[in-house]
Amino acid sequence: MDATSFRVAVMAFESQPGDAVRHCALVAAELSGAARLGVQLALFPQACIGGHDTARAEAFDGPSIDAIAAAVEQTGVAAGVGWIERTGDGRLYDSYAVCFPGGARVRHRKLHSTQRGLHGGNRFTVFDTPFGMRIGILIGDDNDVVENVRMTALMGATLLIAPMSRAASRRATLAARAADNGMYIAYAHPSSDEAMIVGPDGRVLARHATAQDGLIGAQVKPALAEASAGRRALAARRPDLYEPLARQGNVYPLAIDTERAQARGALALSFAIVGRNRVMG
User: Fold this and answer.
1) Phi/psi zone of residue 172: left (φ > 0), alpha (ψ -120 to 50 degrees), beta?
2) Is the pLDDT confidence value at 208 over 80?
3) pTM, full prediction
4) Which fold has domain 6-241?
């Protein structure tokens, strides 16, 4: 495997509530096709295994994720899939799992849960991969909160997996997020008109027009992300100025402190002080 780049694909994949066994079989078939095209990481949409049917929620080590892990082992293609997770204490989450050849698995729980009965996750998920880069996951409208994407980038993610269900288009928003943070974003959506892969400069690398058998693929090069304008902007941050962002509420808590001209009879106008009898730069 070339440590300097790898091939990732997002799969336009329409699922229906229930019937997780059928969906797992379809994912396995897609992985076989992806392997023939040289894909190393194939990403499917939010809740693609069984839809948002909470009655059929499964554990992280349940039969559906086990079936995906088996297909990954057989094809050699790592896979990301979404499903409704049920924990040992009965809590339900909108979750996403990435399975790697060799048996490793990573799970992320959606942070901002909007569906009744589902809990929200309480941690960001950023992890190292066999591809020589760090990857982060944000599900659905988690990506609408700019701080979530920024935090994922600050934790070292070079590729953000952004699985979606059928909802409003986020193409323009995610392109801006990619450029702001100097990261690749893989936007996995059920519709091939929406799914895409964006580069760290905000440029769309692949969309439905280049799809093959429902697969939208692009080469990811971590070095390009590290050299991007977005990464330079991250390095130039002034965290001491942003402390109010961590406070609860929408009111900016600091008083505005403006520079004032102290000379009698003078007014502060832009960059100059205009006196009664003279102008001082």
Assistant:
1) alpha
2) no
3) 0.85
4) Nitrilase/N-carbamoyl-D-aminoacid amidohydrolase (3.60.110)
